[in-house]
Amino acid sequence: MGALAQEVVRPSGGRLHLHPGLVLGGTMLVLLAGAALLAPVLTPYDPNAQDFDLILQAPSLAHPFGTDNFGRDVLTRVLYGAAIDLRIGILAVLFPFVFGSLAGAAGGYSGGWVDTVVMRTVDVLTAVPFLVLVIAIVAFLGPGEVNVLLAIGGVGWVPYARLVRGEVLREKNLEYVAAARALGFRRGRILLGHILPNAIAPAVIFLASDVVLVILTAASLGFLGLGVRPPAPEWGMMIAGGREFLANGWWVAAMPGFACMYTGLAFILLGDGIADLLRVRGQ
Amino acid sequence: MGSVRTVLVFVIAAGLAVGSLAPAVPDASAQQLKKVVTFGINRAQENLDPVTQDANPDIWAFMQIYQQLVRVNVKGDGFDPDLAERWTTSADGKTWAFFLRKNARFSNGDPVKAGDVVWSLKRARDTKGPWQWALEAVQDIGARDDATVVITLREPWAPFLADVSLFSNSILSEKVFKDAKPEQISNQPLGSGPFMLVEWRKGEEIVMKANPYYYEKGLPRTPELHLRYIPDDNSRIIALQSGEIDGIDYPPFSRVAELRRDSRLEMQLNPSTAVAHLSLNVREAPLSNVKVRQALAYATDRAAIVKAVCFGYCTPATTFLPITTPYFNKGAKGYAYDPGKAQQLLKESGVPTPLTIKILYRANDAVYESTAVALKGMWAKIGVNLELEPLDRAAATQRYRSNQFQVDVTGWTNDIPDPSQLAAYELGYTESQSYHSGYQSKEMDDLMARGLRELNPDKRRQIYYQIQDLALRDSPLIWLYYAPYTIAISKKMKGLLQMATGPWIFKDVTVGE
C-alpha cells in the first residue's frame, strides 16, 4: 500500500492533508465509543432483561436487531457490548505497548546480557502460537475479564519489543545520538528522550491493528467460553450463543458479528492513517 | 440379407428388453434396501463393558450387542421375555427361576447356557462399578440345569425384575471372557444380541454386523449398522440432510421446527425419562435453610425455561419422577411460579437480601448455560444475585463430586422402569449423598426402604406418592422440566424405536435406497 498511500497524503502547499482513512476510521471509532457510552440513553431496554414472550423475534422497529432466545434486545446488547470489547481491546494493548517498547529499547540500546535476556524471552514466547498461549493462560487462571487482560498482556508485548529493538539498533548509531553522548547526556535521557521518539513509529502503527487482533482474541475466548462471564453482552459470546440459531434466528449471531467487523475496519483505517502520517513526517 | 437384418434387429431388441427387464424383477418383488445403515451420534463411546461404564452413549451402543434375561417393553411400563422365555417366583417372593430359550446363541455360535448367566450376574454383582446396587438384594445365583437359572433374594424385593432388566446385567459368554483382561471386555464386546461388533475406530465410528445366530428369525433386517460420532450439531444435521447418513440423535430443540418442515426427514420427539434439575448444596447456609430452597423453587419460572431452553418442547416438572415412570403422581402440582410467595418465604427464612448464590455448570453446554442465564434473571426479582460459574467438563465434575458448589445445573435419565433407582440416587444419602446435595432425612430413608420391599402395587404407589410430596417439601433439588429425546431420520428409514429409558432398537430398521 506504500506508494498509493503516499500519493494520497502528499504534502501540498506546505500543509498536511489528513489521510481519508484517518478521518473515516477516527469518525467510526468516535461514533462507536459514543454509542457505547450513551447506550443507556440510546436504548430503552436493559441488556439483560429477559422477556420470554419475545423469544427470537426477527428485526423490527421495536427491536431493530431482533431479539435472542431470552427475548433480550440484540441491539441493546451489541451497544452495551461495545463498551466491554472496546475496554478489553484498549486496556489489553496498553501494557504490551508500554512494556514491550521499553524492553525492546533497553535491549537494543544496551546490548549484552540485557539484550540476550529480552530477546531469548521473546523467542520462547514466539515459539508458541499467540492464541494457543493465551487460551492456556486463561484456562489456568480461569475465565473472566481481568484474567483475559492478564493473559493477553503477558503474551502481547512480544511484537512491540521486536519492532522497537530493531529501530533502536538503527537509530543508536546515527549522528544525533553520538552528539547527545558527546554532550554528556545520561543513557536514560538519550534513550527515552532522543532515540525512543524516533524509534516508536512502527510500534504505534502496529498498535492500531493490534487492538483489532485483541478484540478478536477476546471474542474468540468468549466464543470458547473462556472470556467474560455470561450473561455479559460480550460480542464473541453473543456470536457463540447465537450460532445455535443460525437457521431460525440469524440475527442473534450476525449482528454482533457485524459489530466486530465494523470495529476492526475502523481501527485498520485509523492505523493506515497514522502510518501514512508518520511516514510523511519522517520524510 | 433382409431377413438376416430383421432377425438381428429382433435379437437386439429382445436382448435389450430382457436386459432392461432383468434387474427390474427383484425391484418389483422387494424394495431395494441399503446394506449399511449409518446413524450420527453426538457423543463417542469409550467403554463397552456393561458393568464398569457409566455413560449413555456406551449403554445405547452395547445394548445392540448384549441381551438380558428380560427386557423393558418399549412403552417402559412392563417387561418382555428376552434370553429368559419365562420366569416364576415363589410365594414368599424370595426365589426366582428363569427358563432360558433354547435357540439363543452368542455371535461366535456358542449356545447361551445357564452357566453364562450365573457367571455374568455374579460378575455384575461383585465387580466394583456404578451399577452394583441393582443386585444388592441377591443372596445367591445358581444353575439348576443348562436352561434354568435360580436366584434367591435376602428379602422380597419389589423392583427385582426391573433390576434384572438393567443393562449392567447383560449376559456375556463365560468361555470367552472368564480369563479376559478388563480391556478386552470393554473393547471387544461379544454377546447374543442382534448385532455384533466388527470394528471400532475410537472417537470416529463403531461398525456392527448382523449376528447370524440371533434367535429372532429374519432379524436384524439390516446387514450392517454404523454409529458415527459427529459432535457438532450443525455438522450432524448437514450430514443427514445431504444423505450421507440416515439418522441422527440429539438435534437441538432450536432446530426441531426447521427439521419438521424438511419433507425428506422425520423429526421424532420420543417420550423419555430425562429430568433437568438443580442440585442445591444443603450442607451450608443459606441453602441449608429449607425456606430459602422453597423460595428459590417458587422463584423459578419453569414454563419460561421450557420456552427459552427447549423451545416449548419440554414439560415443566411437577415432581422428581419422570412422567413415564411407574407411580408418577399425576395429581402433584409441584411449584407454581410465584415470586411474591418466594419473597415472603425468603423474608421468613431470616436470610438477609440481596443474597449472592453461585451456580456451577459445564461451559459450552448450550442447554445448561441457557438455564443458568434464565435463572439469573428470574431469581434477581426476589433479591438473589446469581453468579454464573462456567467450568470445563472435568473441572465442573470434580467440583460437584467434592461438594464444592452451591447450585449445580444437571439432570437425570432412568435406567429401569421403576422409581426406586431415581429415589435412591436423588434422595438417599448412602447412594450419592442425594445427588451430591448432602440431603439426609430419616423420614425419607424409611419411606424408601418400605418402597423397595412392598410387593402390593397399590400400597407401593401410596409410598411413592408420599416420597414425591416429601421431596417437594424439602427441595434438596429443584426439578425444572421433563425433556423428550430428539431424533431425526430420513423418511426412507423405517422401524427405528427408542425406549423411554434411552436405548435405540435397530433390529427392525431398514433404509430404502
Any overview of this molecule?
Chain B: It comes from Candidatus Segetimicrobium genomatis. Chain B: Belongs to the bacterial solute-binding protein 5 family. Chain B: Keywords: Signal, Transport. Chain B: One of its GO terms (molecular function) is peptide transmembrane transporter activity. The complex is a heterodimer of chains A (283) and B (513). With 283 residues, chain A is an all-alpha fold. Chain A has one domain (27-281): Orthogonal Bundle (MetI-like fold). In chain A, 72% of the residues lie in helices and 0% in strands. The two termini of chain A are 17 Å apart. With 513 residues, chain B is of the alpha+beta class. Chain B folds into two domains: 6-227 and 492-511, D-Maltodextrin-Binding Protein, domain 2 (3-Layer(aba) Sandwich); 271-485, Dipeptide-binding Protein, domain 3. Chain B is built from 18 helices and 21 strands. Chain B has helices spanning 2-21, 24-29, 56-62, 114-126, 160-164, 174-177, 182-187, 233-241, 256-261, 290-298, 302-310, 339-349, 366-380, 393-401, 419-427, 429-432, 442-453, 457-474; strands at 36-41, 70-72, 79-81, 84-89, 95-100, 138-145, 148-153, 195-201, 205-210, 224-229, 247-249, 265-280, 315-316, 355-362, 384-391, 407-412, 477-490, 493-494, 497-498, 504-505, 510-511. In chain B, the strands form five sheets. In chain B, strands 1, 8, 9, 10, 11, 12, 13, 14, 15, 16 and 17 form an eleven-stranded mixed sheet that branches. Chain B has a four-stranded antiparallel sheet with strand order 4-5-7-6, with helices on one face. In chain B, strands 2-3 form a two-stranded antiparallel ribbon. In chain B, α10 runs antiparallel to α12 (339-349). Residues 1-29 of chain B have low confidence and may be disordered.
